[in-house]
Design a protein that fits this description.
This protein has 333 residues and is of the alpha/beta class. The protein has two domains: 206 residues, 3-Layer(aba) Sandwich (Rossmann fold); 101 residues, Magnesium chelatase subunit I, C-Terminal domain (Helicase, Ruva Protein, domain 3), CATH 1.10.8. Helix 9 packs across helix 11, helix 11 packs across helix 12 and helix 12 runs antiparallel to helix 14. The longest helix is centred in the N-terminal third of the chain and has 17 residues. The chain starts with a helix and ends with a helix. The mean pLDDT is 85.
């Protein structure tokens, strides 16, 4: 025990030093983003835990601006893909073009070859395009012709979807939504924040310039350190209890939830909940995970992984309400 406590102390010190850049990064992003502290923190969790992020919110909540600012502050390559119903997979991943002079096919890489991909309004494109993007997210590689290209690290897909318009949209299939580590619901700013937004936009000279604070290499180093964050067996058990309660609610004295859940969370939920908890502990400058870390990230990891039945919809029960009930019922270590 003595040995592990020394290790954790040393790990704490290393994390304290290595996570110092997070404050600078947040300050830089806050130059262009007023408020939205929760969204920025969740983007950093996705970045540190190597998880893709799905942002849901009405238009105009600075989702695109936040992602662009993050890419500029990390000195990474950024590309934005506006998803439309007529988009083709080649518009995302690239294509082979015939060169007449050289009498051969040449590869033309698509916008997916960047560190930060903003998939704007992902639910506007048909399934073919969504699956091309999701292959890149899962495999971190693209195949064009006979050649397979590895995507540069860090590689992060941040997709946005607009929840209010249903016309001309294609719902993301469950298997695809499961590839996103976090689903963040972005809310309106406070009145005071919105006043500052108006002032910032009325004054052209106040338009901020985002400077690169860290390099992609620093992010890769931080990601490796996040995986070293200590997680006790009790915390692992807590994560498993939360996930298993979505599959077998009756085993956790939640039999009333059984008819409301159409399918429970997949093993990806357990992996992502553990990784996101470690990233959250890293952001809080700690070398070990506590139950509060798990609870802090749980909703964003779980809300898109629990299916609700028609019965639940009839009772106006959302997946968020089900996850909240589970969090209240599962014993905290």
């Amino acid at each position: 025990m003595e040995n592990s406590s020394i290790d954790i102390r040393a790990l704490n010190e290393r994390i304290n030093q290595k996570s110092a850049f997070l404050d600078l990064l947040t300050m830089e992003i806050n130059k262009s983003i007023v408020g939205q502290k929760y969204m920025i923190e969740r983007l950093l969790i996705g970045l540190l835990a190597q998880g893709h992020v799905l942002l849901e919110g009405v238009p105009g909540l600075a989702k695109t601006l936040a992602i662009k600012s993050l890419a500029l502050a990390i000195n990474g390559k950024f590309s934005r893909i506006q998803f439309t119903p007529d988009l083709l997979p080649a518009d995302v991943v690239g294509t082979m073009i015939y060169n007449q002079q050289q009498n051969q096919f040449q590869v033309r890489k698509g916008p997916i070859f960047a560190n930060f991909i903003l998939a704007d309004e992902i639910n506007r494109a048909p399934a073919k395009v969504q699956s091309a993007l999701l292959e890149a997210m899962q495999e971190k590689q693209i195949t064009l012709g006979d050649t397979t290209f590895k995507l540069e690290e860090p590689f992060l897909v941040l997709a946005t979807q607009n929840p209010i318009e249903q016309e001309g949209t294609y719902t993301l299939p469950e298997a695809q939504v499961d590839r996103f580590m976090l689903k963040i619901v972005v809310d309106y700013p406070q009145m005071e924040e919105e006043r500052m937004i108006i002032r910032q936009n009325m004054n052209p000279s106040a338009q901020p310039k985002i400077n690169p604070i860290v390099s992609p290499t620093d992010i890769i180093e931080a990601r490796n350190l996040v995986r070293e964050v200590y997680m006790d067996e009790k915390i692992e058990k807590y994560i498993l209890d939360i996930v298993f309660a979505t599959r077998q609610p009756e085993a956790y004295k939640l039999a009333k939830l059984k008819p409301l859940i159409s399918y429970g969370a997949s093993p990806r939920a357990s992996i992502n909940l553990a990784l996101a908890s470690k990233a959250y502990a890293f952001i809080k400058r700690r070398g070990y995970v506590i139950p509060e870390d798990v609870r802090a990230v749980c909703m964003d990891v779980m809300r898109h992984r629990v299916g609700v039945t028609y019965e639940a919809e009839a009772e106006n029960m959302t997946s968020e309400m089900i996850v909240s009930e589970i969090l209240n019922a599962v014993e905290v270590p």
